[in-house]
Amino acid sequence: MLAGAISILAAATSAANPLPAIYINTNDPDADINREEYIGATYYLEANGAEGVQNIGSAEAPLPLQFRGRGNWTWVGYDKKPYRLLLDTPASVAGLKSNDYFGLHAHADDNLGFMRNTLGFELARRLGIDWTPSHSPVELYLNGDYRGLYFCTELVRVEPDRVNVFRQDDNDNSDPTGGWLIEIDNYDTDPHITLTEGNGQKIIFSHKTPLALSPEQEQFLRSQMQAIDDAVYAEDKNVAAWADLVDIDRLARFYIVHELMDNTEAFHGSCFLHRDRGQDAKWMFGPVWDFGSSFFRGSGKFIWQDANYTLTWIKEMYTFPDFQNKIKEIWAQFCVDGYDGIDEFLRSQGEVIKDAAARDIERWPAYGNADIDASVRKVSYMLANKTRWLGQQWGAVPAAVPENVEIFLRGTLNNWGTSNMLMPQDDGTYTLELASLTDLFKIASSDWSTVEYGGDGVTSLKANTVYKLVSGSVSKNISVWGEIKDAKITLDPIAQTLLVEGTQIEPVVEETIPVYFRGDMNKWGTDMEFTKLDDGTYTLDIEKLNGKFKIADAKFKEINLGGDNVTPIEPGVPYKLIKSGKNISLSRDVDKARMDLDLDGKTLLLTDLSTVGVEAVSIDRNSAPARIITLQGRELPAGAIPAPGVYIVIDKAGHASKSLFR
Fold first, then answer.
1. pLDDT by residue (tens digit) across 337-375?
2. Helix or strand or coil: residue 124?
3. pLDDT tens-digit series, residues 111-129
């Protein structure tokens, strides 16, 4: 462990293009670092030639500070932790404005080249939000251990150079009108008040300044938030009365930033508001802060549509024409002078951190960004797509925005959504990397019509083998044979092929466990058992098949196979089963049904014996046809007598027909 740390440290200090390095040593190296209590420490910073950055202290003469953890999920969910610094003497750390409070953000959750907050902060500046936190990349050494790439960040505080409002004292009843700094929060651990939003959702308002409230202060804050909520949910949308309490221009700019970033956690947590002192002062949304939930899907939705979080007020506010008109006014100006140059900005930021990011992923292999250039290209691509889509809603598109067609892998692994985007490459292909690919999917656009590629419904996709795609709505879901680990997916839209490179994991076949049909028609019991055939497949005949069902063992434990909750099973069409999937539905009831189950390939074939319309045959080895092929596409060995079921038969003259063997 020590040797590895020394190796990485030496590489970092001697590498090309080093960033400023901050060295922090706690007074007690064994002290517990937590989020609740500061511990004593010292620090010094080496500029390493970074422009605008000055050395602070030295190894021989470090300066004192207080040090603790910070963050919520980023603290508990990752080994690479974020921290909070309280300097004994204000200083310009890493080129930021002199202050005594800073954060060291790890961004262990940012797989887009550490660009989420970088871009969000830049867009806020371009949209004219008066104070936006600045941050600066540094490399952190904590108690001699290289901790990787961090971002020294200005914290959101009521101060003249940050949130510049009157600082209201705690427990003060002299003038509760201000100033205020509060947060629409998703944690109820900080001092807060709550109320019920007009749509029935709970809202948590954490108050940062003041921190402890007198009865007068609490009453003022409650009445203000309730008045805003009442006005937002007023029936008459022709006049935005809430704009008497909330600065509508600032809100529009704040909202546009989050739409551009497609931040589906905006207005849910880390959403700050502030208010200066005075009866006529208005609540100002901002500053922006956390963009960790940005760019996780395609562009064709507003942030509140299909979001994983409940977003306070904004969906209802958007129904007011006054607000939409203000958005369009600000947007039109942004299209003229706000967007141009953003790609160059992102590339320059990527170049600054590229070498440090390589050292960071060596230190933290489970996180990080192996290819900063590719990540920056993806951010530029996703921003352009969302900008164009917003422009189509709001009547103007920046001239620099290209026209792109977004293509996604949509399947059971992402609930058939748009969270897995394929990226265009210079050779005309599209690529995507996944840790694991399994079950069912298609390649499609968000509208399922501009692009839709699937399979033939018979052939399973295997690793490192070119798969021929079928285009259009006639295509079937592509089924993956087993699982493909560390999958690199390449779509060639010209050749209409898909290649998935990776490690093939063969499907596991359960050999001895009884397998049952379990569904509505037998009250999900175990009275309908499949018969195992000599070839390892299973079969079951069912009278009056109806309702929903699954294929499972007696305890739904070792075997629990269902569907995708989207595709019903149809007679004659092989159905791909999903481990722990949803209940399978029928396209129609079947009077006399046969189910042929392939546990190896996790495929179920339903045959309607009452209407199958095929010839029933009985053969022996001497009269066996030239070739017999299952409806799943598997050819039986020459001379084999098939188990009961429906097959494709090719006679010695080459004629093909569908036959039912009994």
1. 999 999 999 999 999 999 999 999 999 999 879 999 999
2. helix
3. 999 999 999 999 999 999 9
Tell me the pLDDT tens digit for each residue of 373-399. 999 999 999 999 999 999 999 999 999
Residue 601 has a pLDDT of: 82
The pLDDT of residue 644 is 67
**At a CB cut-off of 8 Å and minimum separation 6, what does 466 contact?**
497, 498, 499
What is the distance between the alpha carbons of residues 325 and 156, in angstroms, rounded to a whole number?
A: 30
Of 534, 119, 572, the closest CA to residue 348 belongs to: 119
- The domains found in the chain, sorted by start residue, are 2-154 (no CATH), 180-337 (no CATH), 407-505 (2.60.40)
Record the pTM.
0.79
Specify the DSSP class assigned to residue 558: S
Residue 547, both tokens = 């309702």
Q: Is the peptide bond before 536 cis (omega within 30 degrees of 0)?
A: no
User: Quick one: DSSP state of residue 455?
Assistant: B
Contact between 74 and 108 under an 8 Å Cβ cutoff? The reply is: yes
Q: Is 148 strand, coil or helix?
A: strand
**Helix extents (H) in 338-371:** 342-363
Rounded Cα distance between 182 and 192, Å, is 9
Tokens of 553: 């063992």
